[in-house]
Design a protein that fits this description.
This protein has 77 residues and is mainly α. The chain contains 3 helices and 2 strands, in the order ααββα.
Length: 77
């Protein structure tokens, strides 16, 4: 991490160019964080949102005892 602080501008530039950067603590194999290109971060946020929606769907199915669709349903009239 000390090295990363000293080279932060260089690492950000690498991530911005499309090369993900993994930050480790005390040697290889102890991954702590990563720097991603902006586009990759957007994909990651969508992935997390999809996971959350799936967890919500499963919770609703468990509570209702029946399958729940994730698709948008029109409001009842």
């Amino acid at each position: 991490m000390r090295d990363a602080r000293a080279r932060l501008a260089e690492l950000i530039e690498a991530a911005g160019s499309g090369d993900p950067v993994v930050l480790t603590r005390r040697g290889p194999g102890r991954n702590e964080a990563g720097l991603l290109p902006v586009e990759a971060a957007a994909v990651w946020r969508r992935h997390l949102a999809e996971q959350e929606a799936e967890r919500e769907r499963r919770t609703q199915e468990k509570a209702l005892g029946e399958p729940v669709s994730l698709k948008h349903r029109p409001a009842p009239r």
